Write the structure tokens for this entry.
Amino acid sequence: MPIADTNGGDSEVRLMLTGLPVLLEGHSPTPHALPIFLLRLATEVDWKEEKPCFEGVCTELGAYYADIPFQDDEESATNVEEVKNDNPELIDAAAKRYVQHVIYPAISFLLVPPKEFASDGTISCINM
């Protein structure tokens, strides 16, 4: 995450977020969650120690990027009826399409299974 010092040497440090990393091509986090992400970066990350700092930043980035698109009001009404019919959906149709067409293709392209999977039958199960 590029962060620029906008003060140029004053005693009070002011930082500006100038960009976010691309963790998964085609997927960008929702802008409405940015304030909470920045607040959690400031309050939940241990900035004094290197290893906990990296772990905290990675944790917060993961949580920020894990947010998938939410449904609009028309789909919400449909899902309420499905729950009443004892057929609840875990995620809405828009989220399913997003996972199917953006996240799954990227993960399947980037996933490199261990060589042992070729001999123990795991790969043949995946290709079914």
